[in-house]
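Handover notes (outgoing to incoming on-call)

Open items:
1. Diguanylate cyclase DosC: sequence verified, structure written out, both below. Nothing else pending on this one.
2. Nothing else urgent.
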Amino acid sequence: MNVTDKSLVEQQKITDSDLKQRMRLFRITDEDLDSRKELRGLIERQLDDIVSTFYKNQTAIPEIANLIGDSGTLQRLISAQKRYILELFSKEIDLEYVENRLRIGLVHKRIGVDPKMYLSAITYLKGVLIRTIDVNFSDELYAKHLGNILLRLIDFDVSLVFDTYIKSMMTELEIERERSDKYVDDLETLVIERTRSLEKITRLDPLTNLLNKRSLDIKANKSFEIAKLKNEPISLIYIDINDFKSFNDSHGHEEGDAILVLVSDCIRSVSRNVDCCFRVGGDEFVVVMPGCTQESAKCNYIPRLEKEIAASREDVTLSIGIAQSGPEDYLPFKSTLHRADKDMYLQKRSKSTHSRDKIPRLVENKSVKNMDN
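Diguanylate cyclase DosC structure tokens:
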């Protein structure tokens, strides 16, 4: 397939999961996206002055003025800049949004805008927008809060623009590598960094950031081998969220994901550094605990996990199975996993947790809390 048959998002292999992860990295929340909309009216009123100030500064720089070239191009840039600024305060961040930001990077790269000039312009735009907010809000703390949201949004956009710069640079390096040893070295460095990043992604579950099922066999078998060499016990815990499927079917994946993230965070919180925590299915988790007996896991780990979850959501319950290997008789990892899985299902049946609304909606819980307040 030719590169012209793919969108920029497809070329960069950016998915919805990648987008959510990038937003988490830049600490952009749904609350932030709602708060920025409060600024749209102000920015619309000040838009002409903002853009005029911006381009007055930019055209005073000879290199940038030469790149723009003529008044017609300048007017088109002014119109595009106005659209961009308004979108900062209103447009939904989705793959279409990402495509537009990647295209900004592509256009700037094609017309020869160096990264330093692009970053310089963005820095100046940030200053103009922040000053506009500060001047028009009497509450300094709230103005600072809104300004911080704006800065993170712009930095998020810049990261996408630079993805395009990097992609273009890699292509140029591939074309020139036979004629330039330096380009070859740069390309190899970039490939190694990207490979390491991809390897890390393939080991982790994108929603919970726990190790994924693909990592289970490798990590667990290694832990079992080490336990046998040390002649110490190793326990395996199999965890299942009660009634999760019916809840997820009834209330939607977004609320279901919130439960999965909560349980994952609690598992991570009560686990030791030597423990390996995995998400192995939709609502199933495994914890491998070196140097831990079945009795210790039952009496110490499980109560702490249940207490941790109850502190946030009393309506979330778990079915938990435990199995131990060694030190007297060392079972293979797969056999221990099977025993823990079987024990978990016995626990699930004994609890008889089959109510379809066992886990109320996350939104409903928030509403109740608001009423209590």
